[in-house]
């Protein structure tokens, strides 16, 4: 068993602890770091799962990246893609919808594309979600080359 972040061998107890608390196999150091990120930024656990799934797919995501206005759950800077995990997808208010639109506008003005992914898509369809994000990345790369 190895850490998903650094590749270091981890003992069975650490594997069990990190899988139970975060859902990802991490060494003690990376478990501590990720838990701190979660506490400091109120990061959804689904963002952690997506972050490591994207890393496994060969993408270089950044967790809790500052976009100049707020922290973004996951950013892929090479293609200027921000990913927000929506935990309350079924309970959106009109105020939240406008705030989300304004955040997307702010990102777009700075050259970034922002997508919002319902947490249920990650929880139940992680592989399909990653495949779709890879497709978005591919499209963004093609647009960058065209410019």
Q: What would you say this structure looks like, in words?
A:
With 147 residues, the chain is of the alpha+beta class. Helix content is 54%, strand content 16%. It has six helices and four strands; from the N terminus they run αααβββαβαα. The chain has helices at 12-22, 28-41, 45-56, 94-109, 119-124, 126-146; strands at 62-66, 71-76, 81-86, 113-118. A four-stranded mixed β-sheet has the order 1-2-3-4, with helices on both faces. The termini are far apart.
Distinctive features:
alpha+beta; 6 helices; four-stranded mixed sheet; DUF559 domain-containing protein; 147 residues; globular
Task: Chart the SSEs and their pairings.
Elements: H1 12-22, H2 28-41, H3 45-56, E1 62-66, E2 71-76, E3 81-86, H4 94-109, E4 113-118, H5 119-124, H6 126-146
Parallel strand pairs: 3-4
Antiparallel strand pairs: 1-2, 2-3
Helix pairs in contact: 3-6
